[in-house]
Every structure is written in C-alpha cells, then in structure tokens.
Amino acid sequence: MISLLPQLDPSSDALKNLKIHRTKCSMLIKNVLGPSMLEALVEDIGDFPYSIIIDESTDLSSQKVLCIMIRFLSHKEKQVVTTFYRIIQLIECDAKSVHEAIVNQLKEDGIKLENMVGIGVDGANVMVGKHNSVTSIFKKELPDLIIVKCVCHSLHLCAEKAAESLPRQLEFLVRESHNWFSYSPKRLEYYRTLYETMNNNNDPKKIQGLSGTRWLARYHAIKTILEQWEELKLLFSIAKSDDKCFMAEQLYDIMRRHPFKALLIFLQNELKHVIQLNLLFQTNNVEPNKLFEDLFLLYKNLLKRLVVPSQLEKLVDSELIEFNFREHLMHTASMYFGFDFHSISRELEEKDLLDVRERCKNFLCSLAEQIQKRLPDNLSLLKTVADLHPRVATSQVKPDIKPLLNYIQRTHVYGKKNDIESEWYQLSNKIWTNTSSSADFYFEVYNDCDAAGCKRFENISKFGLAFATVPISNASVERAFSVYNVVKNKLRNRLSIKMLQSIMMVRFSLSRNGGSCTTFNPTNKMLNLFNVNMYDFKKSESSDEDEILYNVLNNLQ
Predict the structure, then answer these.
(1) For the HAT C-terminal dimerisation domain, which residue ranges apply (predicted)?
(2) Is residue 203 part of a domain?
(3) Are residues 192 and 293 in the same domain?
(4) Strand pairing of 50-58 and 64-74?
(5) Residues 204 and 237 in one domain
(6) What does pTM read for this prediction?
(7) Both 330 and 346 in a single domain?
(8) Residue 440 belongs to what H/E stretch?
(9) For residue 373, is it left (φ>0), alpha (ψ between -120 and 50) or beta?
(10) Radius of gyration of the CA atoms of the chain, in A
C-alpha cells in the first residue's frame, strides 16, 4: 500500500517521502496504541468493583505465561464488560509466584486490589486447592472474595468420567468413523455419491473429530452418526465385502447391533442438556445471576430421574448437595430414558434391553455423582445472587438478602449493609424501565437522584453492580489464549511479551468497541506519542537495521 500511495499524486512531496514499514508499524503498536488503550482501560475501571479471570499456559516457545481477563463496570459504555487486561511472563507457576505476579501488576497499573470482587479460575490444584493455592492466598487478604471455579471444565470432566460406564465400542465407533474419511479423499467422494443416491442429492454432514481436552465435542459427532446411520452402515458393509477391510468389518459389526444404537441415542439425549448448559456458561449474552441456578437444576433433574420420589420430597435444596442418593435409587425398569430410547427399545431382546437400561442407569448415576462432587463450594451463595435479578428486585414480595449481606465485609465496595437492606425494599416503590438485564437495571438505579441531586439508591445499586461483575466461567480467558496462539505462531515465535501484550490489547479494544481498524479514531494522546521518541531500541530487542534507522532519525531531528 505504501508503494502505491506515491503514485496517486507524483507531484506531492508528502506522498513521495512517505515511509511506513515494519519497524515503524511495530513501534506504533508496541509503544503507542497498546499502552494508550491499556491506560484508557485502567481509567474506565477507576475506583469501581471488578473481577479477574486467570489461567496459565505454556506457549510454543516453552515460555510460561499468565493471561488475565478483567470484568468490570464500564461507566463509559454503561454495561458490564469482560475484556483482555494483561499477559504476564512467569518464571515459576506455583501459587505464591502467580499471586505475586497478579498483585504487582495491579499495583503497577494503579488498579486497587481492595476493589476486587471475584476471581475466576480453572480446577487446577494450584488455583483452587484448600491450602496454599492462589485463591486461598487471595482469601487471606480479601475474606469476602468470591471464588468461581470454571463450570465448563467441570462439565467436560463429569461427562468423560460418566462415559466410562458405557461400552468401549461406542468410543471406537465415533473415533474411527471420523478417521475413515479424514485421510482419504477417495473414500469421502465415494460416500458422498452413495449418500446422494440414497437421499436425493443431499450433501452428507462431516463427522467431527474428537478432542482430548473437550470431551463434550463428541456430542456433535454422535448426532451426525445417528443422522446418517443407515448410510454409514451400508458404506462399511460394502467396504467389508469388496475391499476385505478389517476396520470396516469392525465398524459394521457395531452398527448392525441394536443395543449400541440404543446407547448412542441415550447418550445423545443426555449430552444435549449438558452441552446447552455448557454453552450458556461460555456466552456473554445471558443473565449471569441465573446461571448457577441452572447448574443446580441440571443436578436436581438427574436426581429426580434416579431417586425414589418419596425420598426427594423430604429434602430441601441445600440438603441435596450432600445427599447420598445411591442408597435410594429407583428400580431400573421405573427409570425414564427419553422418547427416542423408548422407541428403539422395542427392537431389543429382553436380555439386551435389561443390560442397556442398566448401563444407562450407571451413566446417569455416575454423571450425577460427578456433578455433585464438582459443584462449587459456594454454590448456595452464587444461587442467592439470582435474587438480585431486576424482576425479583422490583416485585412487591421479595426474598431476604441477609445471606448476601452476611457474606460481604467491604462497605466501600458494596455499600453500607443497613442502607442496602432498606433501599432493597424501597425499589418496588418506583417504576423502572430497564428490567431485563441486571447491569442495565442497576445502572439506572445508580443514576436515580432526588430533588437535591443526591442518589436515592446508592447503596443497593453499588451492591447489585458489584455482584454483576462476578465471573461466570473461564471461557473468556480460553478465547484469549486462542488469540494468543494465532498471534504467536511458528513463523512469529520470537515476539516479545510487550509486543504480544500490545497486539492483544489492540485486538480486544477494537472488538469491544464494535469497530475495526478502518473506523478507528486515534485519541490526542496517541497522536502526541506518535513521534521519534516511540523508538525505544535496546540491544536485546533490536537489530542492526533498527539501530541505523534510529541514528538516522536522531540526526534528522
């Protein structure tokens, strides 16, 4: 582009002498755009509550890095924002080192540690262990800090553990059905022709590959296999007889047996509910206050399908968390496994049906048991946060929020407890316009003033907005690592942490503001920084060409 611009007007000295190449672009990103956008982010956070979401990883250059996402109240955008904050290089990945790295970075950037409301982590012991973990160290400094262990990771592990009760042939079928086509265009084209012949020229769906770290990805593969069951069975039957292929013979032998199909139908139906909840925890377009209630409902629905109803009626929700449900299971014949399973069960022999139902029962028991073990320790607190939903807050009859008030300690973050409770019961006396989203509602409440210009509901609005910043999962930091791996690839494996920080800050800042590089408007500070002083060359970071250019620029100056 720079080579083409001078041709627009050959008489223009400005265009003729225009030089914007790799060095200037790099310095512009590293020393102007990135730092300016980070400073704007810190200013937007200000003295308001925030939460962080953290995860550590090792990149392709064997460098240990800690990624920090931040969830805060943006008074510029009038909403709760989750965005990229920092990439920090780690020497050691023990709890003390990670804690010190986070605290030192927050102090360096001028973000107050005492305003931190929550922290989102994965299930690693170094993060959430009871003794000498990152979260336990933070809890000593901030006793009312809300710890959120990633539910997405937990649901994957629960499903993977529960699937051990199912026959290994199912895993073999799903994996090898994908592998059958993955390295052979000839097989894929033959199957496409066969499928189009059987289905009036419809194009077959691709069977997705399995993931070693994301077990729930099997759901989409299972769904595709069941949709193309007859076509795949015919394909393997032809390959078995014509090509004398042993793999095709094994796959056909599995697919011709009705018990395996019944188990796959059951597994598809059960994983669907887990997948739906998992996706809710990954998206930002949901009401966060209700997500943990949905998690508990998934666990409760499993118990209702397994436990004798008379036993469940005796228990309240808080007792279900420690309930030993295996002592009160219904008979297998009384359990319901779905309409599709009921339909195909008519094709099974009585002996096979009993075995299949027993395996389905074991899967549900194992899934419920794993979810019970991995429920957040503070689930009752996280469920109570759902009471702050606008529709509940504006109703005449509302629940008591004393459990939340008893947990909090920092009045400068949440407000005064007595005033919070008083204002909580006064919210229904006024008609509010934004009642669909918690963030929009409490921003409206925060800005409501009396005749003298004083805030009517300052404490309850601070209370509601603070809890709105509590993280819901680690999905955002996983996405950040995906961006990190795209930026730092095999061809760009020597990028420094400072450059990576700036590139990711530019990417997330542009996407957060709904713009792009073509609509971006630089601030006055960026324009002031865009000068010869942005070339901060050091021996360890620059090449000989950079130093020559720096000397030339100094002479010109």
Answers:
(1) 455-508
(2) yes
(3) yes
(4) antiparallel
(5) yes
(6) 0.84
(7) yes
(8) helix 438-447
(9) alpha
(10) 29
